[in-house]
Amino acid sequence: MQLNLHQTHHEIADFEGIFKYLTTTFQKGNLAGLHIFPELFLTGYPLQDLPLKKTFIDDYLAFLVDLSIWSERQLKSSSPLALLFGGLAYEFDSLGWPALIENVMYIMEPGKKLRVLYTKQLLPNYDLYEEKKYFTPGSAPKVFEFDGKSIGLLICEDIWFSHLHEIDPVEQLKEFKDCDLVVSINASPYHLGKVEMRVNRALEISQFLEAPFVYVNRVGAEDEIIFDGHTFVVDGNEVVKMAEGFKPQILSLECPEYKAPSKQNMRSYHSNNNSWMTIFSTRLSSDTMTLTPMGVAGCKEVLDAILLGIRDYCLKNGLNKFTIALSGGMDSALVLTILKLLQKSMPLELEAIFMPGFYSSSISFDLSYDLCRNLGVKLTTMPIKFIHSTIKTSYKDNFGAELNGLADENIQSRLRGALIYMRSNHMNSAVMNTSNKSEIAVGYSTIYGDSVGALSVLGDLWKSEVFELAHYINAHHGNLIPADIISRPPSAELRENQEDSQSLPPYDRLDPILEALLSSRFSAADLIKRGHNKEEVLKVYSLLTKSEYKRKQFCPIIKVKPKSFGFGHRIPISKKTL
């Protein structure tokens, strides 16, 4: 039996585009076999409140009718052919409101109407997932027969049984019927380490059910959430075939026969390997509690994810011009460099603006100039010192006091934010945020100042990881970032001789503390017991908890870690200090 695994991406609610993809693909002939598409292929994911919106419902139901008509009248094959794909199934009350919405797997066969084959049983409701808010779970396993094979069906969270769920769909399949093949359709968001985690779970299930296991995943970016693809097939103890990550692809192969692994390669199905636990995972050494480097493979994966995130955000929101505020520092340099790398695969217009103030050093301009020369990007200098001076005079004239201290520092950042958006409005370009995760965590940024931007490129990377990614890019893409940008001490340059280390612990100590606290696995007291400096831990914890109001007003952050700020981070602003 031929397997054709469609690692696809379409914009959410692009019913016309999905219909065109299906009709075009299946007009070609010689497409017999089992064709498998991702979870919620017919709608996109995550949908948030869209399934409750009347216009969405009407358009979607009309789309299902069109699919059924096409399947009955035009889908043809001389050999066994079936399409499995994810979608929604509705039931309505007497007033026409949705009484029930299910996350289902449809089957399409030549000459037959579209029909529901299986309903997802485990609905995730943690981190960025909120499926219990919208969907009703299924309650029964499903094995269907196709081309002489018994095929067990699962949808995404169904493979990740944990204490959060009352039933185990994989156990159900084991008790229900022997399978020749197990299929899981997925809309599984990316984070660093996720591919290995999926494969390990698939191998456990394959051995437990004694059948090859097919994992089909969505690809593409939805605002800050990345779907990486990496569709694969495992058999016993090996990966038979895997699709490339971060790009659409059809993975075709002959359905493998199950090969039992040797005793030393046997895996336990009950390994507690579930997705719920990932939100408590950390990239910390268990011995030293230091941050584990991403490594070459990790840097490549994260860079690919970020490039896909920016690319899809551009395409879906009609953006092709970008204005970047350069400071001569690491973060803005890396953001501009990443956009330049993206420019190789899609047409983008890039410009950089350097906005020196009273405390900007000459080396900041020199390094910004060198970077733009390396990248072939135009650099414009637009000083803020004269506007800053005018504001200070006006403040004294009106309030009878000198503008100094933090207020004076913040107005410089806000001036830069206003000027970069002035240019953005005039050129119809987008401003990209240049903050890193360390700054966002401790509030080391000015709201409406350097925190502005349409999309955060680095907001899920700790500052130490920003440096690591910069080294990776230089090693693999031709030393684009001047070495002195990477080696100079980080500084906001908002006062005389300012350096980040005057306000924060060094990043090699700050980042592990933040990683531990954000995972919720550790308290401040835990870290102090493990040998971290008490004064540093308490200071960092205080900054983290007091900065929530800034994060609530932040732009979307491209998610590359198990626990990130943004869509999956839900902490009230108003609360007692914990």
Q: Under the CATH scheme, which class of the largest domain?
A: Alpha Beta
Secondary-structure class: alpha/beta
Distance between the termini: 57 Å
User: Stretches where pLDDT falls below 50 for ≥5 residues?
Assistant: none
Give the count of structural domains. 2
Characterize the largest beta sheet: strand count, sense, and whether it forms a barrel. 6 strands, mixed
Overall pLDDT, averaged? 93
Total helices: the number is 16
**Shape call:** globular
What would CATH call the architecture of the largest domain?
Answer: 4-Layer Sandwich
Describe this structure in words.
The chain has two domains: 2-280, Nitrilase/N-carbamoyl-D-aminoacid amidohydrolase (4-Layer Sandwich); 295-504 and 547-552, 3-Layer(aba) Sandwich (Rossmann fold), CATH 3.40.50. The strands form four sheets. It has a six-stranded mixed β-sheet, with no helix packed on it. The longest helix has 23 residues, at 295-317. A hairpin with a 5-residue loop joins strand 3 and strand 4. 35% of the residues lie in helices and 18% in strands. By secondary structure, the protein is an alpha/beta fold. Helix 5 crosses helix 6 and helix 8 (385-399) crosses helix 9 (405-427). The chain has 16 helices and 19 strands.
Quickly list its features.
578 residues; alpha/beta; Nitrilase/N-carbamoyl-D-aminoacid amidohydrolase; Rossmann fold; six-stranded mixed β-sheet; 16 helices; 19 strands; globular
